[in-house]
Specification:
single chain, 146 residues, mainly alpha, globular
Length: 146
C-alpha cells in the first residue's frame, strides 16, 4: 500500500451516508426491523457509521483507521456532551432534529454501540477498498499518467 491514500469518490460516499441515515431513521421508526433485544442500539451504531462515511466525504484521503478513530472521537464527544444539561441545550435536544444529532441522556452502552458501528464501517470500507483496487473507482477526478 502506498503512503498516499487514494481519495474516495465523494458522490459515492454521500450516497452511502444517505443510505445509512435512512437505515438509522428506519431503525427508530420501525424497531421490529432489528431484534428487540438490541433495543435502540442499532440506531446508535448506525449514527457512528454515518459519521464515519461523512468523514470520508469531508476528508477523502484519510485512512480507514483514521476514519474509524475520528468517528469514535466525534461520537464519544457527543455522548459525553450529553452530561451537560443547561436549559438552552436541553431545549435544543427536545426538538426532533436536536434529539437525532445530540441525543438526550448519557449512557455507557451507547459507547459500546458506537464502537460496534465504527468496527462495522471499518469492515465495510475495507471490503470496498479490497473489491475495488482500481484507484479510478475511488478517485475524485481521473488520474493523469506521467
Amino acid at each position: 500500500m502506498s503512503a498516499l491514500i487514494k481519495p474516495r469518490n465523494r458522490l459515492v460516499y454521500c450516497a452511502i451516508v444517505l443510505a445509512v441515515i435512512a437505515l438509522g431513521l428506519a431503525s427508530r421508526k420501525f424497531p421490529w426491523l432489528f431484534p428487540a433485544a438490541l433495543g435502540k442500539y442499532p440506531g446508535d451504531a448506525l449514527w457512528t457509521m454515518m459519521v464515519f462515511f461523512g468523514l470520508a466525504v469531508i476528508a477523502p484521503r484519510l485512512s480507514v483507521l483514521q476514519l474509524a478513530l475520528g468517528a469514535l472521537a466525534i461520537s464519544g464527544a457527543v455522548e459525553f456532551g450529553q452530561l451537560y444539561q443547561a436549559p438552552w441545550i436541553v431545549a435544543v435536544r427536545v426538538h426532533p432534529l436536536g434529539h437525532l444529532v445530540l441525543g438526550t441522556a448519557f449512557g455507557w452502552l451507547d459507547l459500546v454501540a458506537y464502537t460496534v458501528g465504527a468496527a462495522v464501517a471499518f469492515v465495510i470500507e475495507s471490503v470496498i477498498r479490497r473489491l475495488n483496487p482500481d484507484p479510478r473507482y475511488l478517485q475524485c477526478r481521473p488520474s493523469v499518467s506521467p
